[in-house]
Amino acid sequence: MEFFKQFAVPNPTPTIYLSMVAIGLTLIAVLAGITYFKKWGYLWSEWLTTVDHKRIGIMYLISALLMLFRGGVDALMMRAQTSMPGNELLSAAEYNEIFTTHGVVMIFFMAMAFITALMNFVVPLQIGARDVAFPRLNALSFWLYFMGAMLFNLSFVIGGSPSSGWTSYFPLAGNELSPHIGTNYYMIALQIAGLGTLITGINFIVTIFKMRAPGMKLMKMPLFTWSALITNLLITFAFPVLTVALAMGTMDRLFGTHFFTMDNGGMAMLWANFFWVWGHPEVYILVLPAFGIYSEVISTFSKRNLYGYTSMVVAIVVISTLAFLVWVHHFFTMGQGALVNSIFSITTMAIAIPTGIKIFNWLFTMWKGKIQFTVPMLYSLGFIPIFTIGGVTGVMLGIASADYQYHNTMFLVAHFHIVIIPGVVFAMLAGMTYWWPKMFGFMLNERIGKWAFWNIAIGTCLAFFPMFISGLDGQARRMYTYSEVAGFGIWNLLSFFGALGLAMGFILIVFNVYYSARYATRDIGDDPWDARTLEWATRTPVPEYNFAVTPQVDSREPFWDSKYEGKTLFKEEIKDIHMPNNSGQPFIMGAFFFVAGFGLVFSLWPVVYVAAAGIAVLLFIRSFEQDDGRHIHEQEVRDTENDKRGETR
């Protein structure tokens, strides 16, 4: 029995037990459904083994939406707990676990998956490529992310979730103050998922530099592709820092090293520095693709080319550079001198300048434009004022002396969410709605989409604006309860109502997907938005090979020019197309990483050795494998093109 005790949840509650039952029943239902409808072969051949960037993007999207639900439930429980003084809905231990898992799930497994989903689906199409540079590596990236996410979420019902905050500061995350294995899940699951993200970064840098269509020079790329390029450069510089820090933290917990301990030469602040050297660029890893999405959406629905293209590109580069020079503002109150605080205060506030340039460029793009208030455009318009408020409060936090008042209060929580929700979630929902027709061949219902937008926009403001006030009144973050005399009750109650509005908005999005999948017309053409960039020059739904003929680019908006200026976009004849073969190796390797991670969490060394051997064998096989791909023959391409539109190019 001693062996099985380590798998028990340290703080069991009826909620946990109900969740275990629900997870078990859901798993049984899914397996039974796949078996009943005889979809195992289809699932394996079309999805689990796919190397098609479009299908991988869709799998990232589905995963991101699932993680949004998972993290959203955590958020609702936190807001419900603090909605009234002295509430006993959650215990202190439960609250610690919930705010920890909420932050980790939303940042690592929801937001990162969302941006990677859209980059995977859109970037190769925008640059006129058949696929990414390394298709099989792209599949491995997804399965590493997915297995890391599943391993982390397993902590909820086996062994217990981490409870030392999403930043997992030492010594709180050390064995002495976090003796149960929850933090092991944090350290190892994030290493597995982070490795997948790092591989993605390298893959997309090579793809964008080496696989652009003829004539598409760097300064002719769409803004979303530019933002993806800079984002992936940030990933390749920032994520190795996190990987090393997590490895060191893992060794402290499993092998008794002293990198971050308070004795034997350890330094807890070393973890804080490592984390935020990664952590602040991570904010821009999330936000820069959002800026690219807004650039595409605002240009399309203003019926104007993007104002100040060159300055937009320069602003992205400047933001990415400054992102690495601001990490110390996360611990202004932790003992640096006035000189160090002043330097990082200046760099922090300097980021507002290139960000402001982008906002004015979007406004000038809309100036005298023929604006269409579609759902993607509403998210883009809603982003500007809410994000600006978040940015201004960021400048306030960047003032080192004032930060002594704001630090570790709900003011900081409000700032972060007022930046991240419009700066990432609004953008991802705008991008998902905008590119949904190209992904699935039908459009989401506009009326339901607008209902969802207004619920989410109003809910965001109602949920987080009161936190600015309660934070200035002294409410500390991560407090699971408070007394009535503190005066925080009304603000927290309003925040709870705002969270309910957000939840209703996301429920409407789910309903919209169901309703549109069932009732929306499939006769939407290839370019339902009258868009400007190359992804809309493909067939809908997009064939495996993306383009029957590689496009020839001679402007920043080649598709728009081909529609309205008569320029020829496809100049060659249809020929045989070379494509990569599907492979089950990425999925199997991801499964081995999951098993190895689970073994490390519980120090089950035989399990770790077997899984590591499996990974080594797969790497050995791949090193000597001869796989030259396959050809889609010219006639098959012509038949596909005829079937999709009734004519060939």
Structure write-up:
There is one protein chain. The protein has 649 residues and is an all-alpha fold. The protein folds into two domains: 1-37; 38-583 and 627-642, Cytochrome c oxidase-like, subunit I domain (Cytochrome C Oxidase, Chain A, Up-down Bundle). It contains 21 helices and two strands. The protein has helices at residues 2-5, 14-36, 40-48, 53-81, 92-126, 135-154, 182-210, 223-255, 268-302, 309-322, 338-350, 352-366, 375-397, 400-406, 410-440, 446-472, 489-519, 558-564, 585-601, 605-624, 634-645, and strands at residues 577-579, 630-632. It has a two-stranded antiparallel ribbon. Helix 4 packs antiparallel against helix 17. It starts with a helix and ends with a helix.
In the CATH scheme, what's the topology name of the largest domain? Cytochrome C Oxidase, Chain A
Work out the radius of gyration. 25 Å
What oligomeric arrangement do these chains adopt? Answer: single chain
Domain tally: 2
CATH superfamily of the largest domain: Cytochrome c oxidase-like, subunit I domain
Proper CATH architecture of the largest domain: Up-down Bundle
The structure class reads mainly alpha
Which regions have little confidence, pLDDT < 50, spanning 5+ residues? none
Neighbour order of strands in the largest sheet: 1-2
CATH class of the largest domain: Mainly Alpha
Can you give the mean pLDDT? Answer: 93
Pathway: Energy metabolism; oxidative phosphorylation
Function: Catalyzes quinol oxidation with the concomitant reduction of oxygen to water.
InterPro entries: Cyt_c_oxase-like_su1_dom, Cyt_c_oxase-like_su1_sf, Cyt_C_Oxase_1, Cyt_c_Oxase_su1_BS, QoxB
Main location: membrane
